[in-house]
From TrEMBL:
Family in the record: Belongs to the NAD(P)-dependent epimerase/dehydratase family. dTDP-glucose dehydratase subfamily.
InterPro entries cross-referenced by the UniProt entry: dTDP_Gluc_deHydtase, NAD(P)-bd_dom, NAD(P)-bd_dom_sf
GO terms of molecular function: dTDP-glucose 4,6-dehydratase activity
Protein's name in the database: dTDP-glucose 4,6-dehydratase
Length: 334
């Protein structure tokens, strides 16, 4: 088999950089170019572990010229780039429309032009939310019902990919994954925010009552599933990625506090996120039975403890973004 040339969009973000690390480690036959705009969420230092082993291009996926020039040189595009934070989308939706919808359109037009394979990374949030006691989980057949500007733009991007696959024969697969945790996640997100707050002697902030449930998966497992889909997935199909990791937010905060040697109740309840989705839960049977994927990180508590250790040991990575992030939350009253 000849070597594969791959473009990774959003490869300086949380999940994209982990995908690049994993690929360099496990797939020496893959030549990687990263396209990333280095927005407030991107950090080139997240690629330090693979320094010299990948090509980095700073650029915007909504710019058709840079997208064209890079896509024409590769065999595969793995598309992670997005505006990814719900709270930001409630404050200013436009960057979400621009990157998630128009940016995905530009990627689709380029892969269509050159007959390049695409894997599109999406989220379980496109399905809306579930009641706490609903026995059903999200499946690939669940109707789309997004709640926030973020999730509605991700849903829009998925629908574009489906339409380009059907109408233009674009060779695409889609994955919708649940909440990721692990190293290199921006301090605006729930787990890194609380861990770095505790390091700073600040009490964690829990939205509303803390009863909301997320279905946690380690970022390494998300990306091993992405590779499984690239290797074995059927073109035109959607696969849901999840590791049966449902935990309510209050329990997550209590576990962080306990692991970090603090009293379990040393947190504050703050005002709720508008439209806050109650519960996400993934049924990943199709991915497991059809493609034979299984997660490796099965114990959330030990994965969380390792993540806490990473943030404790890598303060120089997150510290430059902490103050501005907390200033934004202060403005939101959270
Ligand atoms: P992130 O915010 O950490 O990273 C996004 C990256 O995209 C950043 O490096 C940023 O600079 C880059 N980017 C943003 N706009 C860009 C543009 N216009 N052009 C080029 N690059 C741009 O996000 P993440 O958490 O790593 O999420 C990555 C993908 O995974 C997203 O598509 C997201 O919807 C999806 N996803 C995330 C989760 C999760 O729990 N974080 C779960 C399921 C799916
Ligand atoms: O489900 C997948 C999605 O998971 C991804 O598509 C998104 O990109 C990713 O950001 C994440 O979305 P959430 O909104 O679930 O993640 P977030 O980390 O913002 O919040 C997780 C939960 O914690 C949510 O119920 C809100 C709550 N929360 C969040 C913060 C930042 C708090 O209680 N306190 C906080 O300080």
């Amino acid at each position: 088999m000849p070597d594969m040339r791959m473009l990774v969009t959003g490869g300086a973000g949380f999940i994209g950089s982990n995908f690049v690390h994993q690929t360099v480690r496990e797939r020496p036959d893959v030549h990687i170019t990263v396209l990333d705009a280095l927005t407030y969420a991107g950090d080139e230092r997240s690629l330090d572990p693979v320094d010299g082993q990948v090509v980095f291009a700073k650029g915007d996926i909504a710019d058709p010229d840079i997208v064209d020039a890079l896509v024409r040189e590769v065999d595969l595009v793995v598309h992670f780039a997005a505006e990814s934070h719900n709270d930001n989308s409630l404050h200013d939706p436009w960057p979400f429309l621009r990157t998630n919808v128009i940016g995905t359109y530009q990627i689709l037009e380029a892969v269509r032009r050159y007959g390049v394979r695409l894997h599109h990374i999406s989220t379980d949030e496109v399905y809306g939310d579930l009641e706490l006691d609903d026995p059903a989980k999200f499946t690939p057949e669940t109707p789309y019902n997004p709640s926030s500007p973020y999730s509605s733009t991700k849903a829009s991007s998925d629908l574009l990919v489906r339409a380009w696959a059907r109408s233009f024969g674009v060779q695409a697969t889609i994955s919708n994954c649940s909440n990721n945790y692990g190293p290199y996640q921006h301090v605006e997100k729930f787990i890194p925010r609380q861990v770095t707050n505790v390091i700073d002697g600040v009490r964690p902030k829990l939205y509303g009552t803390g009863e909301n449930v997320r279905d946690w998966i380690h970022v390494e497992d998300h990306n091993s599933a992405v590779w499984t889909i690239i290797d074995k997935g059927r073109i035109g199909e959607t696969y849901l990625i999840g590791a049966d990791g449902e935990v309510d937010n209050k329990t997550v905060v209590e576990t962080i506090l306990e692991v970090m040697g603090q009293p379990k109740d040393a947190y504050d309840l703050v005002s709720d996120r508008p439209g806050h989705d109650l519960r996400y839960a993934i049924d990943s049977t199709k991915l497991r039975e059809e493609l034979g994927w299984t997660p490796r990180y099965r114990d959330f508590r030990s994965g969380l403890a390792a993540t806490i250790d990473w943030y404790s040991a890598n303060e120089s990575w997150w510290r430059p973004r902490k103050e501005a992030t907390e200033a934004k939350y202060t403005q939101l009253g959270r």
